[in-house]
Amino acid sequence: MKYKELFEKLGNPNPICFADYKIRISVNDIPKYNNKYDITFVPNIGGTTDADITEFKAFWVDIDAGKDKNNNYFSGKKVRDFKSKQWEKIYGFAIQPNIVTETRNGFHLMWFLKEKISVELWRRIETALTEYFDGDKSVCCPSNQLRVPGTIWRKDPQHPYPCKILKHNDNYTYIASYCDVLNISESTVIEKKNSRFRYTKPTTPKSKPLPSMVITNYKQLFDYLTKDVDMFAYLQEFYGLEGNSPRSFKCIIHDDKHPSASIFKVDSGVELYCCNATS
Fold it and tell me: Residues 63-112: pLDDT tens digits?
């Protein structure tokens, strides 16, 4: 994926961009300035200060290996080891980022936003994501800049590094799901942007505990919940799901008049829940 396609998917096709963090440039100027400067952009819409932001387009986390006690960047091997450990944590997170960009010293993660959100809730979710990944807490502000994929990391002039997107997907996650996963309390009713219906967050079902087992990392937990637990049977027992087949049943996320949901298994063995409703 190229940066222009990223901007389109973000819903901000002409973001504010900078060369060397302070020289304002256009998207079309990026190739010219990339030969000399670090190139960044503001994912959210409205301006260059927090007070200017009028529309939130993403959450993000900057995962950085940091520097040694002498303020020098760590060796390539140490950074690679750091990235390997972080990649396992990224893979095991319940809500996969839409974009994973590799930089010299780590990763930039992005989750796209399509619903309206208050600045207060945006900050709470942004902070919780940063804390979960032990990211850079200095880039949790609405007007922060992120590095443009496909450009060159130049913080160490002697060792420039090409930044590239390693992983991307078009899946969209509702704000309520971030609140659930990150244990953030929020109103149980969230209005969809198109105002066609209101989404009421399901109440927690009365359920028996899952069998006891020892889990030592997030990947084991993810694999167990997505491969070993029968999702359809679980939803039938604890959510009162209507339907006899995982291929077609009434969706539990909205007031479904006709069966619009299904559960299917991908090649990796992971079960995915899909709602095909158009409105």
Answer: 999 888 998 888 888 999 999 999 989 988 989 999 999 999 899 999 99
Give the residue among 223, 214, 253 at the shortest CA–CA distance from 235: 253
Average pLDDT (55-60) is: 96
Q: Which residues pair with 19 in a beta bridge?
A: 23, 39
37-to-80, 155, 277 alpha-carbon distances in Å: 24, 9, 46
Burial class (CB in 10 A: 0-12, 13-18, 19+), 187: exposed
**What is the three-class DSSP state of 16?**
coil
The C-alpha angle 120, 123, 125, rounded to 5 degrees, equals 110
| C-alpha span between 3 and 39 (Å, rounded) | 11
The total of other beta-carbon atoms located within 10 Å of residue 69's CB is 5
Q: What string of DSSP letters covers 43-108?
A: -SBS-SSGGG--B--EEEEEEE--B-TTS-BPPHHHHHHHHHHHHHHHHHSSS--SEEEE-SSEEE
Tens digits of per-residue pLDDT, 162-203?
999 999 998 888 888 899 889 887 543 344 334 333 444 444
DSSP letters of 223-240?
Answer: HIIIIIS-HHHHHHHHH-
DSSP 201: P
3-state helix, strand, coil in the chain (%, to 5): 30, 20, 50
Provide the whole-model pTM: 0.66
Distance between CA atoms of 272 and 130, rounded to whole angstroms?
A: 26
